[in-house]
Amino acid sequence: MSDRARTRLSGRTRDRIRTSSAAGSRVPGALAQLAVLLRTPAGAAQPLFAQSPKRWQRALPFVVVGVFVVTLMPVTITVLANDYGVGGGWAGALGVAQTVPLLLAVTRPWPAWGAVLTADTVAAVLLIGSDKVAGQSWPWPPMTIVGYLVLMACLGLRESVRPLVGVWLVTGAVGTVLGFSSPAGVTNTTALLFVLSGVLLVLTGALRGLGDAQQRVAEQESISEAERARRTLLEERARIARELHDVVAHHMSVITVQADSAPYRVPGMSEPVREEFAAIAASARESLGEMRRLLTVLRGDGAGGANGVDGERAPQPGIDRLQQLVEATVRAGQPVELSLAAGAAGAAPPAVDLSAYRIVQEALANVVRHAPGAPTRVSVTVDDDEVLVLVVNGPARDAVVELESSGTGHGLVGMRERVRLTGGTLDTGPLPDGGFRVAARLPLNDLTEEPS
């Protein structure tokens, strides 16, 4: 997995934990957060709960294991010395060896498991010759079982199924081998530890497996989201390209007609000039044909309009059609006011004219979807250098209306692409009162190069 994808997934994990915290008013907050943390697998070099957004949550595994170590160490030393009759030096050494390695289990469970299992095995061998071992639990005393189960919990939350099965089998094998030298009169705890460790490994392994599955789902969702955004962008660019084809094709057709008709409109034209106009007309027709062949791919969806006529062959709208657009929106129940500067309809070149119309169209569509009933104001002003398109809406009036939340983002993507195409700027964002603002500045000057 890439670092960028891992970062996104870590962010999703923190969001899930914060969501669980926000739900604390309905369920116990600590339990909800703990459930999410236990299902979140830690990386190979990370301690448990390393992806938690809060410091105390990241420190929780160290605190819990530390409490077990501080509690089990004196208990182990005391039980070995008093109940099993082990010498004070050996009891102290075994108590330290069996409990202190548990501190490694949070970050490095494999070395901790090796050290603890070795210390437990050495202690079981030493207890064989103890005078007080009869009537006691062997080869695993109660405090040994508790410490080993803590280690199994840490191991199960980090490792996959196959290593956990190996750990469980090794645990049973060591107990079985020791059982051949079992002292008389002891309570054999081999089966007890084998069963308890197996149950704990199954539970923690299941939690880890659930966390891994959720991580894979989150990864796929992230990939799908990126692909969906990319597909939306490509579709919007294709739609803009088709519309630009209509604009450019019109001008190319005009050039062709003018060049072809020039000899008839201007009498007395010399032969070289006639040939030059003929060459211009031929180049224009060739360019128009190449453009149509290129756009055939984009128009190859086979979708036609009524009566078999493609609706996209209709004349493209512009600023002069904004009044009709606003009236249609008002008839649909959306209160909209239009402020159109005098002369704005004929001041913009075709590309800017079409872009201004589409930006207003997309903005009004978003208002209808996400803020039905909100008062909306559309303003189009023109100066010597640019066209300013402003669409501002207030908060939705009808609070009981369920707003659409499944949009694909085509509107904003289309606006950005159209503004980028004309070399302008786009400013969108929410307002303090709960409304939304869309402001586009589209330059009127002809573009000589593609905007970066």
UniProtKB/TrEMBL annotation:
**Where does the record place the Histidine kinase/HSP90-like ATPase domain?**
355-445
The alphabetized UniProt keywords are:
ATP-binding, Coiled coil, Kinase, Membrane, Nucleotide-binding, Phosphoprotein, Transferase, Transmembrane, Transmembrane helix, Two-component regulatory system
EC number of this enzyme: 2.7.13.3
Q: Which regions form coiled coils?
A: 216-243
Task: Give the compositionally biased regions (Basic and acidic residues).
Answer: 1-18
Q: Which Gene3D superfamilies match?
A: 1.20.5.1930, Histidine kinase-like ATPase, C-terminal domain
Catalytic activities = ATP + protein L-histidine = ADP + protein N-phospho-L-histidine
Instruction: Give the main EC class.
Output: transferase
Q: Where are the transmembrane segments?
A: 59-81, 87-105, 112-128, 140-157, 164-185, 191-210
**A Pfam entry, by short name:** HATPase_c
Q: Say which domain of life the source belongs to.
A: Bacteria
Q: Name one GO molecular function term.
A: kinase activity
UniProt cross-references to InterPro entries, sorted A to Z? HATPase_C_sf (IPR036890), HATPase_dom (IPR003594), Sensor_HK_TwoCompSys (IPR050482), Sig_transdc_His_kin_sub3_dim/P (IPR011712)
Domain Signal transduction histidine kinase subgroup 3 dimerisation and phosphoacceptor spans what residues?
A: 236-300
Which portions of the sequence form the region Disordered?
1-24
This protein's name: histidine kinase
Question: Which species is this UniProt entry from?
Answer: Streptomyces avidinii
